[in-house]
Specification:
The chain is α/β, with parallel strands linked by helices. It has 2 domains: 253 residues, Glycogen Phosphorylase B (Rossmann fold, 3-Layer(aba) Sandwich); 201 residues, Glycogen Phosphorylase B (Rossmann fold), CATH 3.40.50. 49% of the residues lie in helices and 15% in strands. Strand 5 and strand 6 form a beta hairpin.
C-alpha cells in the first residue's frame, strides 16, 4: 500500500490538474467567445481576455487579429453606407447620364416642347444666340445636356432657318454641342391660332386662378389640332427605324400629341409633363373641347404634374368627363385597354456642384456691381424675377412694397426693389396692356416717395449669368405668384446663395411653397402680409437668415433637376408595353 500511495497521489494530482485546466480553458474559451461576439456587434471592442498561457495565447492572438479585421470591415461598411446615402441625395449630371443610359438601354430620347432652348436672332449685321427666359427650358435643358437625344421645338427666331440644316436640325449648345435641336416651322396663321390663341388665351387662363377669362375660338382650335399633327410628323421622322423610343412631351401646347404618337407607334413609351396647374373639374368644364383634350392626354403612358393636388384634380376631371376606370389607389386611368399613370414630379433646378471659394466676397462684389449699374447706394436690395405675366403677382408685389414703406417710413430712401421683367407674349393685347400697367404702377408708387425711387423695372430679357448678381445681391427675393405650377425663380435664388444669406418671400399659391417651408410664406393678395414679410426679411439677423437658407439649400440640393429627371425617366422606362407591339 505504501508503495502504491505515491502513484495514487500522482494520479490524483494529474486528475486535479486536468480538471483545473479544463475549468480554466472552458472559462477562457467562454470569455473569448463573449469578446468575439461583442466585437461582431459593431460596438467598441472590449479589452481582450487575460492571456492563459502558451495553450491559449496563439488562439487569443488570432482572435485579436480577427476582431481588428471585423472592426475595419465594419468601419468600411459604415463609410460606404454614408457615401451611398450622400450619393442618393446628390444627383449630378454624370450620375444622371449613367442612370438614363442604364434605364433606356440605348433607346432614343425625344423631348417635344413649343419653346426651343436656343433661338437665333439678327442683331444688326450679326446673329445672336438667345436662351429664352422659361422655366421649362431651365428644367429640361440639363437633362438633354447630360443624356443627349433630340429636342423638337418651334423655331421662332428670325435667324433660325439660317442656322439650321435643310431639315431644321442643328447641334446645341453652340459652345459645346451635346444634343440635337429639331426646329418645326409654323406659319404666322398657325402660330397665332395655336400659340397665342388656343394655348395662351384659352388654356393658360383656364388653368390659372388669376381671374382672367379664357377665350375659346373654333378657328384657334383648328390651328391647335393642325400644329399638334405637324409636331407628331416631326416626332415620327426623328424616331423612324428606332425600337421602343421614349418621347417626353411638354406642357399644355401638346395635349393631343400623346394619342397621335401612340396610334401610329404603339411601341413608343410616351410621357407628358404638365408644367402649369390643373384646375378642378368645374373650371376645366369651361373648355368646349375638354373631351378631345383628355382623350389626347390619356394616350400617354405617364402624365406628370408638380403637385399631388394637380394629380387629384386631373383624376377628378377624367372621372367626371370620360367613360374610364380611375384607380385612385395606383393613381392610374384605364381606358380602351390602355393605362395611364398620373404622378407628381416636383421640378427643380441644377445646384452648383463646385462651391465658390469665397461666397461672402462674391455676394459683396455682386451687390456693388448691381448698385453701381443702377447708380444707386441703397442699404437694402429686394429683387423680383419674372416674365411679364399677369399670373406672377407683380402688381401685388409693388403694392406690398408700397405698403411696407407706408407702415415703416424709416425704410424710405433705404430700400430698392429691382423688378426684372422679361417681355412675354407681346403679340397678345392683354400682355402688352399688362406690361404697360406694370410700368404705370411703378411710376405711381415712385412718385409718392421722396428720394431715390423704391422700384426699378428692368423690362428686358436677362440671361442666367446676368440674373445671378441680382440673386447674390438681394436681401430678399419676392416670388408672389397668384397661381403657379412650381415657379423655379424661388429655387434659382436659393441655389445661388452659397453665402447662406438672403430671405425668400414666397407665395402660398406657388407649387414651390410645398417644399420650401423655410421661406416666408405669404398671400400675395394681402398687401399687409407682403409688407410685414418684407420688413421681417430686411430686419432679420444674419444667423436667422443662415438658419433658414441652410435648410432651403439642403432641400434644393437633394431634390435638384437631375433627381427630377431621373425619377421621370425611371417611371417612363418601367412602362409595360402591350404584348406584340
Amino acid at each position: 500500500m505504501n508503495e502504491l500511495q505515491p502513484l495514487l497521489l500522482t494520479v490524483a494530482a494529474l486528475l486535479a490538474t486536468v480538471l483545473a485546466s479544463r475549468v480554466i480553458v472552458r472559462r477562457q474559451v467562454r470569455r473569448l467567445a463573449d469578446w468575439l461576439r461583442l466585437s461582431r456587434t459593431g460596438e467598441p471592442p472590449p479589452p481582450p481576455p487575460t492571456r492563459a498561457g502558451a495553450l491559449m495565447n496563439p488562439l487569443i492572438r488570432e482572435a485579436e487579429a480577427l476582431a481588428k479585421d471585423l472592426a475595419k470591415a465594419q468601419e468600411s461598411a459604415v463609410q460606404e453606407a454614408r457615401l451611398r446615402s450622400q450619393a442618393d441625395a446628390l444627383w449630378t449630371a454624370e450620375r444622371l447620364r449613367g442612370h438614363v443610359h442604364a434605364k433606356l438601354a440605348g433607346r432614343p430620347l425625344v423631348v417635344v416642347a413649343n419653346r426651343e432652348p436656343y433661338r437665333h436672332a439678327h442683331s444688326g449685321s450679326k446673329i445672336e444666340v438667345v436662351m429664352p427666359a422659361s422655366g421649362l427650358v431651365t428644367g429640361l435643358e440639363p437633362l438633354l445636356r447630360a443624356c443627349g437625344g433630340t429636342w423638337i421645338a418651334h423655331g421662332d427666331g428670325d435667324a433660325d432657318r439660317e442656322t439650321s440644316d435643310e431639315n431644321g436640325r442643328l447641334k446645341v449648345p453652340p459652345e459645346n454641342p451635346q444634343y440635337a435641336l429639331r426646329r418645326v416651322w409654323l406659319s404666322d396663321e398657325e402660330d397665332k391660332g395655336f400659340y397665342s390663341g388656343f394655348s395662351n388665351e384659352g388654356l393658360w387662363p383656364l388653368c390659372h386662378i388669376a381671374h382672367t377669362r379664357p377665350v375659346f375660338r373654333p378657328d384657334d382650335w383648328a390651328r391647335y389640332r393642325e400644329v399638334n399633327a405637324k409636331f407628331a410628323e416631326a416626332v415620327f421622322e426623328e424616331i423612324e427605324g428606332q425600337t421602343e423610343p421614349c418621347v417626353l412631351v411638354q406642357d399644355y401646347h401638346f395635349t393631343l400629341l400623346p394619342s397621335l404618337i401612340k396610334e401610329r407607334r404603339p411601341d413608343a413609351r410616351v410621357a407628358l409633363f404638365w408644367h402649369i396647374p390643373w384646375p378642378n373639374p368645374e373650371a376645366f368644364a369651361i373648355c368646349p373641347w375638354q373631351k378631345e383634350l383628355l382623350h389626347g392626354l390619356l394616350g400617354a403612358d405617364l402624365i406628370g404634374f408638380h403637385t399631388q393636388d394637380h394629380c387629384n384634380n386631373f383624376l377628378d376631371t377624367v372621372d367626371r368627363v370620360l367613360e374610364s376606370r380611375v384607380d385612385r389607389a395606383r393613381f392610374a386611368v384605364k381606358r380602351a385597354g390602355h393605362e395611364t399613370l398620373v404622378k407628381p414630379f416636383p421640378i427643380s433646378v441644377a445646384f452648383p456642384e463646385t462651391p465658390a471659394r469665397e461666397p461672402a466676397a462674391a455676394a459683396r462684389a455682386a451687390r456693388e456691381k448691381v448698385l453701381r449699374a443702377a447708380g444707386r447706394e441703397d442699404e437694402f436690395i429686394a429683387v423680383g424675377v419674372d416674365r411679364l405675366d399677369y399670373t406672377k403677382g407683380i402688381l401685388e408685389r409693388f403694392r406690398g412694397v408700397e405698403r411696407m414703406l407706408d407702415l415703416y417710413p424709416e425704410y424710405q430712401g433705404r430700400v430698392v426693389l429691382f423688378q426684372i421683367g422679361a417681355p412675354s407674349r407681346m403679340a397678345l393685347a392683354g400682355y402688352r396692356d399688362f406690361g404697360e400697367a406694370v410700368a404705370a404702377e411703378a411710376a405711381r408708387i415712385n412718385a409718392r416717395f421722396k428720394g431715390p425711387p423704391p422700384i426699378v423695372v428692368l423690362s428686358r430679357h436677362h440671361s442666367h449669368d446676368e440674373l445671378k448678381p441680382y440673386y447674390l445681391a438681394a436681401d430678399a427675393c419676392l416670388v408672389t405668384s397668384l397661381h403657379d405650377g412650381m415657379n423655379l425663380v424661388a429655387k434659382e435664388f436659393v441655389a445661388a446663395r452659397e453665402d447662406e444669406r438672403g430671405v425668400l418671400i414666397l407665395s402660398r399659391f406657388a407649387g414651390a411653397a410645398r417644399a420650401l417651408r423655410d421661406a416666408l410664406i405669404v398671400n400675395p393678395y394681402d398687401a399687409d402680409a407682403v409688407a410685414e414679410a418684407l420688413r421681417t426679411a430686411l430686419a432679420m439677423k444674419p444667423d436667422a437668415q443662415s438658419l433658414r437658407m441652410v435648410r432651403l439649400r439642403r432641400e434644393v440640393r437633394e431634390n435638384n433637376i437631375y433627381r427630377w429627371s431621373a425619377n421621370l425617366i425611371t417611371e417612363l422606362a418601367a412602362v409595360r408595353l402591350p404584348a406584340g407591339v
